[in-house]
Amino acid sequence: MSDKLLVFAPRYDTATEYSYAWAEDFINKIKDNPSVDYETLLEISATKDNFDSKMPYDDVLVFFDHGNKDCLFAQNSKKLVTRKNVGCLAGKKAFTMACLSALELGALAYYTGCTEYWGAVEPIGFTLVDADLFGEVFVDGAYERYIEEKPIPEVYDNMINHFDLQKEKTNNPWTKIWLERDKDMWRCWYCDNPPEKPKELTWWEKLIELIIEILEAIGIYTPNHEFEIS
Fold first, then answer.
1. For a tag site, which of 12, 121, 128, 162 has the least CB within 10 Å?
2. Which domain holds residue 92?
3. CB 128 within 8 A of CB 230
């Protein structure tokens, strides 16, 4: 394969403890393959400064964990990719296991040149007792797409079927419910499946966004994540 991967995985709360383990599963699947060119930003190294220094030289972002409709988060809930710097994904591919990020950020990324953006349009959920069943779907999807280089429609269909297969491996009703919900919210935006073009923010939305940025910068406000754990 010719693409260079950047695996990005913060680790600072309950949700990221599990998604970090899934990132490790992905790394373990690729680390002994001499044809795979990759680098990692993990735990305390998963910062925006480190991302900004590496992403220009990588082709694929494999991102594990927190997102919102308009951003991806780095270590300790610091914003990583937002509307303002989404151009960093232009000409790249992005596979994000991130809540809500396909709604606005993924759409904007696509229309600013990101060639494919995988993500969710609702909060992702999982159960602790069956966490591995959820992680396996995302890990295998990223592996099929970027290591085995299967086409997007095939990978997407395989992931949808994988969600269904995982439901057969558990008797936990909440696991079955969340697997079904995660399946329904999963998206890939690319040339054959483009998202709706995002609307321009109104002046007051831009003002609110600016105020939130200031509050975050001085440590008064920390974004809430809508990840669901049962």
1. 128
2. 4-229
3. yes
| Count of structural domains within the chain | 1
Q: What is the DSSP string of 15-37?
A: HHHHHHHHHHHHHHHHTT-TT-E
pLDDT at position 176 is 97
C-beta neighbour count of 111 within 10 angstroms: 15
For residue 145, what are its two tokens? 């797409």
Rounded alpha-carbon distances, angstroms, from residue 130 to 25, 133, 169: 15, 6, 9
SS3 call for 78: coil
pLDDT, tens only, 7-21: 999 999 999 999 999
CATH number of the CATH domain containing 125: 3.40.50.1460
Residue 37 is predicted with a pLDDT of 97
Give the residue from 54, 76, 53 showing the smallest Cα distance to 6.
Answer: 54
Let me know: does 89 contact 109? Beta carbons within 8 Å: yes
Stretches where the chain sits below pLDDT 50 are 230
